[in-house]
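Lab notes, practical 5.
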Amino acid sequence: MLGVRFAKYVLPRDDRGPFERLLPLFLELLTHTSGDVDEALDWMRQIDEERGLFPEGYTLKDFTDDLRRHGIIGDRPTRGPGTGLTAKGEQLIRQRALDQVFGQLKKSDRGDHGLRRSGQGDESTSDRRGYRFGDRIEQVAMTDSIRNAQQRGGIDELRLSEDDLEVVETEHQSACATVLMLDISHSMVLYGEDRITPAKKVAMALAELIARRYPKDTLDIVVFGNDAWQVDLRDLPYLQVGPFHTNTVAGLELAMDILRRRKLRNRRIVMITDGKPSCIKRDGEYYMNSVGLDDLIVGRTLDAAVRARKAGIPITTFMIAQDPYLQRFIERFTEANQGRAFYTGLKGLADMVFRDHDSGRKAS
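Output from the prediction step:
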């Protein structure tokens, strides 16, 4: 009987240079420092002093020089003092988030939409069929059609008739307009737990996923605290939690307003939050209550969920808090909207956002 055999573990060979090995750490630190290049580099300096981060003969200055040489950082920041990220650097952060959250996407995955039905669509397939009245001229497979005419009448009697025509079958593909709502209230960093960093990673990864795999989709990003406002994709690495309450109503109203302007049949809201609604605006003034669930604030929030349902906009809520009374509120919220809700800690959040985005693309 054979037992367990042990062998010496040999580390896999890493042929990358010091810059390529250190770059992923730098990009990760940038997400945690909200895009502050100088702070991320300072963290690397501290790690080097404590753990010996840089290999012999390669210093922090060498790494910084390489960042400039590769066009990742520059001397003229677009926001804030100090060293700035370039557009290439911002894209690399989104790319890393995509790799971390969704893994390496294969090129064959591009355009893998949930809805498939044949007819007059916008994506060609390998299928052929006979011509039908109303087919577009660009759908006609001319080579196949001429071959049919040749087989029927021969080369000397080549006459193309309607019966010879073959058309390329097409598919309808569902496109989706999504608004991603991010909670940036103070509770996202409360009690020493960093919830905003993974939330930002999900947002950046989802944006890159849509751009690469669903190029006909749209993604808008809304952040909400005391108020709600729209941010650009480039703003995501720089987002910070503020001393805010949670005005979920303001976020939903802005998201619905954005989706009304989108000319797509499928519209949806994805909301990532870790706390209860604690703020609304009433008669031009903020009304805030962080103690328990305020009946007035809850009522206004449920009303917004109903309005979204009537507008045909489902809301998928990812609650990253485990409090039972908050989960009960989300159950009421989801019932009012007839949407979806997931209750999760930080682990697994990104995968569920991906699965829900992919599975929610069906159209009637």
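Observations recorded by the TA: The CA atoms of residues 44 and 50 lie 10 Å apart. The chain has a mean pLDDT of 82.
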